[in-house]
Amino acid sequence: MRVNDEDVEEFGVWLARQLKRRNMTQAELAEALVITRAGVSAWVTGRAEPREDKKRAIAEVLGIDEAAVHLRTVDAPSARPIAWYHRPAHADGGREFGNAAAFAFDADVAVLAREATQNSLDERRHGSSRPVRVRYVLHELSGEHLRGFLDALRWEELLPHYEAAAAQQQKVGRVIAEGLRELRDTDTLLLLRVDDYNASGLTGPEYGDGRFAAVVRRQLDSHKSARHASGSYGLGKVTLWATSRLGLVLINSTLSEPHEGRTERRVIGRLDLPWREVAGEAFAGPAWLGEEDTEPEYEGVSRSWWADEATTDRLHLTRARSDPGTSFLVVGAHDAAGDAETVQEMHEKLVRSLADNFWAAMTHGAAEGALLEASVTTMRNGQVLIKEERVDPHAHEPARSRALQAYLDGATVDRLTEIDQVALVHVPLTVPPVRGQRGIGVEHRAVVLVTPADEGDSKPNRLVCMRGSRMTVSARRVPDLPLGTNPFQAVLLAGHATGSTTVDADLAEAFLRAAEPPEHDDWTKTEELSSGYARGARQRIIDFRREMNAAVRQLVARREERGNGGPAVLRELLRLDGGGTFPGRRVDGHPTVRHVDGELDRSGAWRVRVEVKLPQREDPWLMAPVAKFDVRSGGRPTVRWAELVAGENCRVENGHLRFESGVRSASFSGVTDVESHPLAADMARLIVDLQKARGEVQ
Predict the structure, then answer these.
(1) Looking at 502-634, which runs of residues are DSSP E strands?
(2) H-helix or E-strand spanning residue 76
(3) E-strand stretches of 391-455
(4) Measuring CA to CA, which residue among 304, 272, 312 is closest to residue 172?
(5) Do 283 and 170 contact (CB within 8 A), yes or no?
(6) In what helix (H) or strand (E) does residue 325 lie, and over which residues does it extend?
(7) Distance separating alpha carbons of residues 58 and 54, to the nearest angstrom
(8) Higher pLDDT, 232 or 182
(9) Rg, C-alpha atoms of the chain
(10) Residue 21 and residue 76: Cα distance in Å, rounded?
């Protein structure tokens, strides 16, 4: 309830809307109140406001509480029906057999999670210090729960349109046909609801410019309000409809700014079908579930309505809290990629996608909060099947989250000397002038963070790039790393992701945003980049990538000088073996050990770092690293590895090393098992031998 007079909607505007909702004319209200029509007209036009006794009488005529007339936060019950409106076919005979924008993305729940969460981040409430809260709920319905939902959806009104669309032999029709078949055969329907809180909500007019119309009624209208917005094409929202086998999404929004004097439960449904004929009448494609509009310009069109709690309950649209934001319900959700066929698998895939793409937005520092909180819950017929799983960035991306947290806390270093440290270096991005302007451009200092990879990291030595709201834009392996580089993770922050609000950060943000394709998964040449910036813009992106890779290589380069070879006693104790009978022999056509560095630790174990030379080959290599003691007499006893750690172009599989195909160099490190030593390590030389893994064809 609002208390500030300036927040209360003007009485005349409110009264005019109530008359339309009740299908009542000014003359009819005047007759019911026993006053002149001119008196009602004066109220509607704002020239006058009724006395208290007349306000009580108006409340009685409209069938609402007297307080509603004073506060004007509640509308009178509408006499207009809630129904589906199907857009008539084009008069010129044109036909669309689906929404072309839907084919810009795969109908994949991982893509949906990336695009929908990005949109929520972009609509985080301006000036708020709290994170956007995004909640994904998978809900499988069957039996009476399913029938109750379909009744609330007015399924019988929709079925003829679905059957007509499914009968058509084209891509969208086949998807719909499969959705109908699964619904009939299994008597189940999967709903996927995406809720966000502390966001703007779908504000704005029904048909004019604003967030509501951009999402519900338009295509290619981004209408993003934030400077750091990731989206710019207005395509991301279509993944909601593309993930529905039935092309149907229901919406319930709590607004950050009142519309028609209301903020809660603005509800509408949108259906995307191909052109179709039903009962001899042709329809263009989309349809909307809503309240019938009585405005002459939009007469008969279904518009959003202010639903009651019972209606949102029946439509599975009830929001958990009153914070502004929007709930999207994808009806008949599926994963077109085919690798998530059960609700449990879809649950896991959603969690992975949120962690992969938004770990940085979910990371916070000691004094700076996270931008995002995200969770996934799975239900079946109203009962929790998999309890709410909150996505923890430190559990999914420990090294990268550590790097970003150190940056937020100001705890970075210039060079890495400890395993838990984070090194920082700045790299330049020259933002060219916009097309038509003169100048040499503005330099922005992006941030590169590097930290050692955690044990078990399956994809080390990658650089993750981001801007704005810290969504992952790209993740690439850093090329041309020095041999023997220890596994690491690197993060690049550009634009507003650096935390800077200076002009150069603003310019870098806009420039990189223009360099992103619709998928927002790279910085590259785009039409927007070429048309919006002076010649040479693409080269600036290429230069930027070269600078960031060089900065990473500088931070991870091994500091020790190999010319000295380390202490003499260790040089004498280390030998290398290339896989043959004689130490140091290099066999053409097989991987060979190029260099070994090592040291004896306090426990008496050897800790070695090994560089490998690989011949050209399309297939990967599977090799067994063998450590031997070269004793003065007898054979060379083999010692066990206590630990093997993958380095560049390599991964550890069941005690073997798999070197990636097509690479010419690799590295790994290992620690010997002291209990397997036949004698003290400093009493014999260590040989590292690479042998063909048992069962490997080479």
Answers:
(1) 574-577, 592-600, 606-613, 621-630
(2) none
(3) 423-431, 442-452
(4) 272
(5) no
(6) strand 325-333
(7) 6
(8) 182
(9) 32
(10) 7
Beta-carbon contacts of 145 under 8 Å, excluding residues fewer than 6 positions away, are 381, 382
Q: Which two tokens stand for residue 283?
A: 């329809």
Q: Which pLDDT does position 97 carry in this prediction?
A: 65
**Coil/strand/helix, residue 669:** strand
Phi-psi region of 348 (alpha: psi -120 to 50; beta: other; left: phi over 0): alpha
pLDDT at 98: 62
d(CA 362, CA 615): 43
Name the DSSP letter for residue 262: B
- The first and second tokens of residue 235, run together, are 């395509």
Rounded to 10 degrees, the C-alpha dihedral 672/678/681/686 comes to: -70
Angle at 411 between CA 406 and CA 417, to 5 degrees: 95
Q: What is the largest CA-CA distance in the chain?
A: 121
Helix (H, G, I), strand (E, B) or coil at 455: coil
Residues 278-308 have pLDDT tens digits of 999 999 989 999 998 877 788 889 999 999 9
In the block, residue with structure tokens 């260099």: 595
What is the per-residue pLDDT across 318-347, written as a single tens digit (0 to 9) for each? 999 999 999 999 999 999 877 888 999 999
Cα 14 off chain centre by: 40
| 252 burial type by CB count under 10 A (0-12 exposed, 13-18 middle, 19+ buried) | buried
Place of tokens 């400093």: 682
